[in-house]
Specification:
about 190 residues, alpha/beta, UDP N-Acetylglucosamine Acyltransferase, domain 1, seven-stranded mixed sheet, five-stranded parallel sheet, 4 helices, about 25% strand, globular
Amino acid sequence: MKTEREKMLAGELYEPADPDLVRARKRARELCHGLNLRQEWEPEERRRTLRELFAAGGNSVGLQPPFYCDYGSNIELGEQVFFNFNCVVLDVCLVRIGSFTLFGPAVQIYTAMHPLNAEQRRRGQEYGKPVEIGSDVWVGGSAVILPGVRVGSRTVIGAGSVVTRDLPDDVFAAGNPCRVIRALNE
């Protein structure tokens, strides 16, 4: 029998009230609260907290508080990822972000979903779909990346966009819903 965490990570319906999941979210909230509350940190203490929060990439991530996430342990970062102020990552499934990717202020990345079936929602069940973002991506402020989306490397997403489907490498995309505007020449 699968644990609720295993179901969650597999994208199956799961019970978010499971005590192990509640503890894991509490841990992430405490780490985020510490990062968000303290403006002045000893560099090594801040780095240690970031390593503890993220599954990978805590050594080189740049992060302007406030920052919020569900678990942190489901967020894998490449080298030199940067989150500007007020970013939110709902990481009930894996969020993989490539190296040198930049997020403007108030960017939101969602993997969490609620069932369309009202009875399942009333029971509190949830599920999710992973998000993958390539390397050297720039996501403009207040953009929202929805569950199950893959963003290709070197792509630029315009501010305020709502990314509802996959985007290829090397494009500028914007809008609601977000669509490819043009290819980027290197």
